[in-house]
Design a protein that fits this description.
This protein has 5 helices and 7 strands, in the order ββαββααββαβα. The chain is an alpha+beta fold. Strands 3-4-2-5 form a 4-stranded antiparallel β-sheet. Strands 6-1-7 form a 3-stranded antiparallel β-sheet. The longest helix has 19 residues. InterPro entries: Monooxy_af470. It holds the Pfam family Monooxy_af470-like.
């Protein structure tokens, strides 16, 4: 179990970053042949990214529900996200090709989506929690008197 940090903390990061949301939704529970490979493909891609500091991948958080999953990914830049997505030597391209092939055989059985955000400034606060989210992807620091308010954290 992750160690809980007592009190208030925030993240520390200088410069832009990218937040990439990606998810899937199971539309046809009776078609695991269509949706299980989509779910199974994510782990190897995340391991590949985490093992390559030059990829620009900073970290992620995954949420599972009974119908699917959502990942919040933190990246150094939007360009790094696009570079990985189009890299013919990375795991994403074959996974994308396989998804499209399965989707043609089972139309509508599984849905996928993503949203990409280029972020110039960000603010966060975590109270009595293990390090997570943006703080886990970048760096964690205590909330001091100077960083007591959200507006001050956003401006710092």
């Amino acid at each position: 179990m992750a160690r809980t940090l007592r009190g208030r903390a925030t993240h520390h990061h200088e410069g832009d970053l990218a937040v990439f949301l990606i998810g899937m939704r199971v539309n046809a529970l009776h078609r695991p042949d269509a949706w299980l490979p989509v779910l199974a493909a994510m782990g190897p891609m995340l391991r590949e990214l985490a093992a390559d500091p030059d990829s620009g991948f900073l970290g992620y958080r995954m949420t599972l529900s009974w119908r699917g999953t959502v990942l919040v990914q933190y990246w150094r830049s939007v360009e790094d996200v696009y570079r990985y997505a189009t890299d013919p030597g990375a795991r994403h391209r074959p996974a994308w090709t396989a998804f499209n092939r399965r989707a043609r055989r089972a139309p509508g059985a599984v849905g996928i989506w993503h949203e990409t955000f280029q972020v110039a400034a960000a603010e966060s606060v975590y109270v009595d929690l293990p390090v997570q989210g943006l703080a886990a992807a970048t760096a964690v620091r205590p909330v001091t008197r100077r960083l007591d308010r959200a507006a001050a954290r956003l401006a710092s």
